[in-house]
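Hi support team,

I submitted a single chain yesterday and got back a structure, but I'm not sure I'm reading the token output correctly. Could someone confirm the output below corresponds to the sequence I sent? I've pasted both exactly as they appear in my results page.

Thanks,
R.
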Amino acid sequence: MKRIGIEGSLAIAEAAKLARTDVIAAYPITPQTHIVEHLAELVANGELDAEYVPVESEHSAMSACLGSSAIGARTFTATAGQGLELMHEVLYIASSSRLPIVMAVANRALSGPLSVWGDHSDVMAARDCGWIQIFAENVQQVFDLVICAFRIAEDPEVLFPTMVHLDGFHLSHMIEPLYLLEQEEVDKFLPRYHHPYTLNPDKPLSMGTFGPPNIYTETKKSQDVALRGCKPAIIKAWNEFSKLSGRNYSPLESYKTEDADVLLLTMGSFSETAMIAIDKLQEEGQKIGLIRLRLWRPFPFDEFRQAVAKSKVVIVLDRALSFGGPTGPVCSEIMAALYPLETRPKIIGFTGGLGGRDISAPTFEDLMRRGIDKANQGRLDELEMIEVRE
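Hi R., thanks for writing in. Yes, this is the structure output for that exact sequence:
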């Protein structure tokens, strides 16, 4: 297995190449532009036998992906921030049509004011579009999870489009070590794609046509049931990838949570910084651990409830605001996930890292100390949003 140093964006492009992608339709936008630029080079140089479709907008990019995926082509695209929102209406068509498109999203703050830097406001705005959504923490994970995303999305038991989220600039432009898989290894893990319901001019059919009130509710309910039912196939794909690579992925992952009374919950690249803070606090005798959400949709209810069963406090870091809401979007989801339980930990919500602002290890230490103090004071019903600052 070859070890190289590579930028996160280029790692994604290499993963799409190894997946033998058939069609790439994309529009450049900071901070994901390097992904599609490198893919364009690979196609132009003959290193990737694929159709590269330059389009006039992200809306057009996703629309082109609908067509290519519907005829049975392995389809990839990438976007960020405002681009994800411009294609927003088409995201729903991809998921309801059960088209296994794979998209890398270099998460970026939404305007205004204008920001090209990373936070999670774009993904939270697209939370309910019906896609499988997975978070990466480093460049190796981005590479691995894009390859896994094709395997997951194209599984006949799944057939849902899949997003792989990476923090804009913090991962998209970061150069890190990468263990690069060989083409033969990927081919074994990811066989050629055969969609069972492709469009065929000899057998014409319609997709996504008008749904009157007497069938719309049942259609959307069945879509939700199908998305929730994808988790076993996702876990199976990750288990098989572990056998191939030696790297393990789970819907929810933990770090030093044994005997922890307090848990910090994070998503994305800031999780690795939080680990440094966890190490420091445990050296001081604090019983604090870290849990990270890998699988955002479908939400891993069982794994999460099991992970927090023995904890007294869960501190949730959001990297997006829910304007006018009681707390951040992730914290709201955590509260909802725990609501059915008779015994549940105290939930403390913080919001930080907006618009690309870094959160250092010392800031994480301060965040956790403040969260514990707040829990001890019984200030739980307020759930005020506290901006984490350096």
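A quick pointer for reading it: The mean pLDDT is 95. Let us know if anything else looks off.

Best,
Support desk
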